[in-house]
Amino acid sequence: MNEQRRQILEMLAEGRITAAEAERLIIALERQQPGTPPGAEPRPRPRPKYLRVLVDAPDGAGEDGGSRANMRIPLQLLRAGVRLTSLIPPQAVTKVNAELSRSGVEFDLADLKPQHLEELIDHLDDVVIDIDDPEAKVQVFCE
Q1: pLDDT of res. 37
Q2: Number of structural domains found in the chain
Q3: Phi, psi at residue 138, to the nearest 5°?
Q4: Phi, psi of 21 (to 5 degrees)
Q5: pLDDT tens digits along 31-62
Q6: Residues 55 and 32 in one domain
Q7: 29 & 51 share domain
């Protein structure tokens, strides 16, 4: 076992990081080629396949007194949804945009293109959102 992996497991055992955080760190280590010197170009990242949303909230609803959610959403489903927007009639797009605007969401459904989703997915691969408060923890990331 290499030193970095051992350190990650020690942090997990000490409770300094969660299992999900440890998993992400180990995956990041695995992306590096063995024996690659520091500063060398790492091998290309694999294309993410899932959007993961983890929720841990103590609200008395779960079996241990908290509610938990572990959602793994296939990015292929999002890609298919974007392609389906091209089938929406222009009149319906206008109505959807008007309702979105009325709700405070300034977004034009006609501008949603597959390449925009791919750009978003590329950026999500580098983003981890952790929300900690005394009541809940939410994590969103690509894997």
Answers
A1: 54
A2: 2
A3: -125, 135
A4: -65, -40
A5: 664 555 555 555 566 777 888 888 887 765 44
A6: no
A7: no
Structural domain boundaries, residue 94: 47-143
Which residues are paired to 73 by β-bridges?
A: 51
Could you say which DSSP state residue 81 is in? H
Predicted model pTM = 0.50
Same domain, 30 and 74: no
Q: Which residues of the chain have pLDDT under 70?
A: 1, 31-45, 59-67, 123-132
Which residue, chain included where needed, has tokens 């959102």? 129
Let me know if 135 is exposed, middle or buried by CB neighbors in 10 A (0-12, 13-18, 19+).
exposed
- Of 19, 44, 22, whose CA–CA distance to 122 is shortest? 44
Q: 8-24 burial by CB neighbour count: b if 16+ within 10 A, else e?
A: beeebeeeebbebbbeb
Q: In 3D, which of 116, 44, 127, 106 has the Cα closest to residue 79?
A: 116
61 and 123 co-located in one domain? yes
Residues 34, 64: one domain?
Answer: no
CA 105 to CA 99: how far, in whole Å? 9
Assess whether 139 and 94 both reside in one domain: yes
Residue 21: which residues within 8 A CB-CB, separation 6 or more? none
